[in-house]
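Deviation from plan, reported transparently: H2B complex.
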Amino acid sequence: MISDRENLGMMISTVSFDAIKEGDSRMRYPTLTEAEIEEHLQRVPMWTRDGNMLVRTFQFKDFIQALQFVNQAAETAESINHHPDIDIRYNKVTFRLTTHDSGGLTIHDFELAAASDDFADTILG
Ligand SMILES: C[C@H](O)[C@H](O)[C@H]1CNC2=NC(N)=NC(=O)C2=N1
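Because the crystal trials were delayed, the predicted structure below was used instead.
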C-alpha cells in the first residue's frame, strides 16, 4: 500500500525527470521573483511591466526603419529562441516580452529587452 505522501513524492520525481529528459523550458527558465523583476527593471527603464509582460513601444522615422528594427530583433530572437510578441503600426513597434513556456518573466525577457534597446539606439542614432 503506497501512502499519499509516497505517491506524491513519486509524482513529483516523475515530473521532474520527464522535464529534464524533455528539456522542459519550465526547468531551464525559472520565472523571476518579484524582487528580481524590480531589480532587472531598473536596467531597462524604457520598459513597463504589464503583469507577466515587459512592454515597450519604439518609435522610428518611418515604416521601413521600423521593419529594419524588427528584422534585427528577429535575428536575435531566433538565435536565443526567445521571441517577442510584435505589433507594427507604421513607424511604431510595440514589443511584449514574456516567457510563454514558463508562464512568467524570466531572465531571457530582460536579455531580449536590453538587446532590443541597443538595436533601437543604433538605428535612431
Ligand atoms: C518550442 C520553442 O522552443 C518554444 O516554444 C520557445 C520559442 N520561443 C519562445 N519565446 C518566448 N517569448 N517565450 C517562450 O516560451 C518561447 N518558447
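The longest helix spans residues 4-22. We consider this an acceptable substitute for the interim report.
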